């Protein structure tokens, strides 16, 4: 059983609600899609820069927060406003709102509560299971749980009410009940025992035996019982746990030849703190029975499905026949906008305010109170290292995650954190348990690093401690223990991509920070301590069921348009799409539109089953339908932008080249179809917008495009791609010949005609049992830092930092660099600054803002002493690999290791503040 | 309600009736639809909402709009992100931001752009020594929060505009 | 301006305190300073029972010290060049520094954000003269006794005479902001008038330090 990273509610089950509606734009007001097609045809823009560069420096309307009703063609002009009121208490009975205490001018027109939701028959999607609103007479499920949605005619009324709720106690609470308890969200045990010899089959592994969960929980604490109990329900667990317990016994046993360390590490909850608070605009037109929405999320397809499910069985007088959602540029995501319940409340606001466009927008207090958080982890780790060889003999860990009030992605984060717990190392015996707990805290979910930031921080500081104990150089230790190419990860499968530990370690070792560490330490100024730290991470990208929708077309003038379902949240996906497509068809697109899920209808995709848990038989059966794919559209998350997000568009571009531009080139050259050169299209290449082929005259793209249109060649293609640790591959028959590629659906356009889908002749989906893989894709990053600590204050300054990473082919080198710089900053914040206490003192109480919650500013960072190095790809055709998460991870343990080097003290909890450092120096 | 008149990007706006406790940020975004100016924290912590105020003495300052009543801007002249480029021609700073890939999600960009522009204009009047340049840029930009970029390229983008024309901004 | 809930609460607190003080007065004739709640100031008359004039003078200052050490005062009388903010006295965000005139660096002046008056919808404090006390007037982290010695020393009090101090604490409107800090901030104890009365009593009684 694989916990799904997505709640897969199929389009087919959406109860008659149509999700694909073509926007109708009036002449005066451009539609959202038109505004967000960038850089825009005829718009002057610098040759260098992101496709969204000019729009973003000129204040263009791009984000969901920017749109009002008057900006939407065909909408009523006036925007109305909604206030989502959340509970700052989760230990007393909620007894309703004290609306009488509101200033009279702030009286809401309508108040929507749990009762109203129930009355109309709204359904909570399974992924968000739990009351959307706390019913009166109930203790809130978690701090920050919504209790009511207040709807206002005017902004002024809303604004006064917002302040009144923020500053006053307008929620009534009664008797103290204590927090509500709930079952754990999930518990897993990952155990692997390698064969005796290198290369021998594993004795036990999750890949071979499946993933296991304990069958019993302690009746008092609710925690899973990990030890081996006779379990009629789960013999699989008994078998795996027996191996796990043996590993633990080995680690506990006294063995003078093995160093064993047993440590606890705690990480804090933090907020993604994307700068654009969650916002949405929606209008329910009761006459047309149509719900229009404008939102910004990382998971557009999921959001559309979730809204459709919410409203799928509401009473006829409330039920929209169609939901049309426009997905905007996103002002930062970092995971926190992947599967957020916010769109559900936007939809409800509109539905209960029929005929009125209504805007729901968090302010920062509300975003802290209600937005998805990073999981706080409590970890116990045990490691055994052979003193003579310096090789890790065994590793065991127990993780407890604070999942907060709703399940969201807790189980998935627990799994990814656990399977990432041995980082870059080859360890023959591993036993990791993990449990994600329900608490009354703010819901935790996806955030950059996704559990591995926490577990690899614990690991990389533990390894540093082992090196100290063994007097082993930390880089040499890593070199000895690094997972070799082809060796198995802790789930029992090898990586299917390059993971270049030796090169990363060589770079770290020879770079000045590490090389000069002793000299710099000795040269510390009076009153200051100098320390150097190093750490590495191999971090997965992708989720094991990722897909991509993309379309590429070229007009007779050679101008390129790209459409994609991937979301632009700062990750540079639009620019990456344009660059990757340009490698195939020569021109950088002047129309790139992202976050679209409603322009791929011609592919006529259908899906069924859960791609993470489908059986091979079911997949084989389903795949007989040429319309079927394992999943239709993914969230832009899990560092999949470059690898997955650009795949469909890149493959579409190859089709346009092969069946449109290449035949046009042959015609312009006068090369006959039977000429052997006619088949050598892979040898042609682009220099700018000119096509070159040995021995034939260069051809400008414009001429090729015009010819392709004239000949009725392929001038547009749209494709779907699916990856389960390997791409689905399919063959399609075109009149010009067969085409096999790493896509599973294709439609083409000829000349200026419409798209026609092509049935695939053959398809090979990745095997269903790849779902037992933890990850087969990983990128690696190493970081070294030199810090300076002022003894008197404990203030820490990062003097120099270096990160070296590998990510295959870089589609936009400047974006990769920027992600690494941004990841460094976020790592510094996590290690040294950011902290959200749990429960009543934490963000759920509604009083948090950026005064208390301090994120890294420029002055916290070595802006002119941060050196980022990206290894060139192993080969020119190495695919792009995800890197947005891995660049953040080693920063955190490297800082902690540097603090130890400077102070001689190890900290086992985050963040490490100046006061704490000062405390240990006293 | 009180009447408010001001000049935004060279154009007269108002008189308009506004609530005394309406923030300038909401006035721009909700009343005028000028959403280039962002809302980030509402507490003058992130400064994504900062606009330029041109003072009578010929100098300019930035001001966060989320913590000030709109009426504080009565009779003032302000510039917003929408007003930098003239007829589609980007300013050197806008161009530098784009060419340096300074921003990622771009939500903080209007604030950084306004702050950087005010700095450039100040340095034209009060030049600094080359060795003080990085510190001067840090002092100017440090109030602004960017969660994506790690700030490196923003600082480089501002610095490179200055270094491209040193006699204009730096002491000899 | 809307009257918000928190204002009402503060008002309620103040009313309760007054009633309490009256109650004590009717019982004992005079409340002793030790009976005074932390958020109120004992009037000079309540120190009459202290016979020793120097001790009485020092006691006035100790009572006044409740104001001087409140976050409303110490946050902007910081020990470093960086002010603090909030009742928790955390470092000011965004990072701002004293600058040559106590009004910030060239780029991030106090007045960039702090307007002429509080803007309660954003919880933003304001005053036309918003600025930091000079470095030599740093009170953050000091005891009341240390502040007393410091406040009398013209080299460390801005060149003020004792008479000037009465005016500074008793009449200055920026100091007066401490009692009207807007929602979300605890006002300085008592009222500015009550603080002034204590300063007068202290000066007139010889300005002894605790």
TrEMBL record, chain A:
PANTHER family per the UniProt record, alphabetical: ALDEHYDE OXIDOREDUCTASE MOLYBDENUM-BINDING SUBUNIT PAOC (PTHR11908:SF123), XANTHINE DEHYDROGENASE (PTHR11908)
Originating species: Ancylobacter polymorphus
Gene3D superfamilies: Aldehyde oxidase/xanthine dehydrogenase, molybdopterin binding domain
Statement: the UniProt record of this protein carries the keyword Signal: yes
Entry keyword annotation includes Signal: yes
Occurrences of domain Aldehyde oxidase/xanthine dehydrogenase first molybdopterin binding (ranges): 260-482
SUPFAM superfamilies, alphabetized: CO dehydrogenase molybdoprotein N-domain-like (SSF54665), Molybdenum cofactor-binding domain (SSF56003)
Region forming the signal peptide: 1-27
Pfam families, per database record: MoCoBD_1, MoCoBD_2
Protein's name according to its UniProt entry: CO/xanthine dehydrogenase Mo-binding subunit
Keywords recorded for this protein, A-Z: Signal
Residue ranges of every copy of the Aldehyde oxidase/xanthine dehydrogenase second molybdopterin binding domain listed in the record: 509-598, 629-841
TrEMBL record, chain B:
Domain [2Fe-2S]-binding: 80-159
One Pfam family this sequence matches: Fer2
Residue ranges of every copy of the 2Fe-2S ferredoxin-type domain listed in the record: 16-54
Transmembrane segment boundaries: none
Gene3D superfamilies assigned: 3.10.20.30, [2Fe-2S]-binding domain
InterPro entries recorded: 2Fe-2S-bd, 2Fe-2S-bd_dom_sf, 2Fe-2S_ferredoxin-like_sf, 2Fe-2S_ferredoxin-type, Aldehyde_Oxdr_Iron-Sulfur, Beta-grasp_dom_sf
PANTHER family the UniProt entry points to: OXIDOREDUCTASE WITH IRON-SULFUR SUBUNIT (PTHR45331:SF2), OXIDOREDUCTASE, IRON-SULPHUR BINDING SUBUNIT-RELATED-RELATED (PTHR45331)
Protein name, UniProt field: Aerobic-type carbon monoxide dehydrogenase small subunit (CoxS/CutS family)
Source species: Ancylobacter polymorphus
UniProtKB/TrEMBL annotation, chain C:
InterPro entries: Multihaem_cyt_sf
Protein name: Isoquinoline 1-oxidoreductase subunit
Organism encoding this protein: Ancylobacter polymorphus
